[in-house]
Amino acid sequence: MDHLVEKALEGDHRAIARLISLVENESPFASQIMANLYAHTGKAHIIGVTGSPGAGKSTLLDKLIDNLKRMEKKIGVIAVDPTSPFSGGAILGDRLRMQSHALEPDVFIRSMGTRGSLGGLSRAAYEAAMILDACGKDVIFIETVGVGQSEVDIVKIADTVCLLLVPGMGDDVQVMKAGIMEIADIFVINKADRDGADRLEAEVNIMLDLYGSKAWRPPIVKTVAERGEGIDALCKALADHKKYLSESEEGKKRFISRIKMEVEEILRREIAKVVEEKWKENCDDNLIRSLASRSIDPYTVAGKILGEIFSRGL
């Protein structure tokens, strides 16, 4: 395992892919892998890209990769797809949309399933980003499934969140949903050659005005990703936000919040494993019959199991 980690730290894509697979599949080695890599993290700019299905996220990423390559940046992409209910794997395969970059030495692209995570992001997606960070990627994109109130999970992972909107797709309503305005650091109006782009821009500005003045007012960047229009402006906005985070109190607060989140997520996961094992030990036919007949309630059962766990210690 140490040899695999060493190869990954040298930038070997096969080794990186293997490490991500081990973490995604919850290998017994996963915790040790992440522990060994942690000291090498903290250098990459992690960018979340979210928006309605059909907003053009993958096409936009394809053009961003072109621009960043010209700046000699090493790039990682995690495309979070819905999980197949049959195989457990990702079913959209966004790598196909960015296939022109898939074999390039400085670009690593990986599709991952949500694995049932309500926020659209599994813990493995975060750990995959950390692996790519440790292994020398300068910029890491996380493309998420759709947009909605549960999608705010992206803000826990990304340094910068880009919210894609498209004229004529109801995004003027979507953007007003609780939580969506707060997560965006940059608004991208893609397919800006369509009718309604100016109106959508005006409505976003109105909403930003209603939220009051902040040290960082999210810029609105118009793009036509298919033609590569507006990509330079978007790259500048991303660089400006990265600089803002490095110099501001908000950036420090986000950093501290993420450190806390890392430990909290690990604790939740490890405690959940202990609870699940204890439940399997207690779940027999007699107990199920008692629950079905209402002679005992699930709250009492859960309380008893937790009592046994915490009385002997985790």
List the topology elements.
Elements: H1 2-9, H2 13-24, H3 30-37, E1 45-51, H4 57-70, E2 75-81, E3 107-113, H5 123-134, E4 139-143, E5 160-165, H6 171-174, H7 180-183, E6 186-189, H8 197-210, E7 220-222, H9 231-247, H10 249-282, H11 285-292, H12 298-312
Parallel strand pairs: 1-4, 1-5, 2-3, 2-4, 5-6, 6-7
Keywords: Chaperone, GTP-binding, Hydrolase, Nucleotide-binding
Domain AAA+ ATPase: 43-212
InterPro entries: AAA+_ATPase, GTPase/Isobutyryl-CoA_mutase, GTPase_ArgK, P-loop_NTPase
Which keywords apply here?
314 residues; alpha/beta; Rossmann fold; 2 domains; 7-stranded parallel sheet; 7 strands; hydrolase; GTP-binding; AAA+_ATPase
How many discrete domains? 2
Judged by helices, strands and strand pairing, the structural class is: alpha/beta
Radius of gyration, in Å, reads 22 Å
* Overall pLDDT confidence: 85
Largest sheet: 7 strands, parallel
Helix content: 40-55%
CATH class assignment of the largest domain? Alpha Beta
**What's the CATH architecture name of the largest domain?**
3-Layer(aba) Sandwich
Q: Work out the strand percent.
A: 5-15%
Q: What is the distance, rounded to the nearest whole angstrom, between the alpha carbons of the first and last residues?
A: 27 Å
CATH H-level homologous superfamily name of the largest domain: P-loop containing nucleotide triphosphate hydrolases
CATH topology of the largest domain: Rossmann fold
**Unreliable parts:** 83-95, 116-120
Approximate shape: globular
Oligomer: single chain
Number of helices: 12
The total of beta strands comes to: 7
Q: In order across it, which strands form the biggest sheet?
A: 3-2-4-1-5-6-7
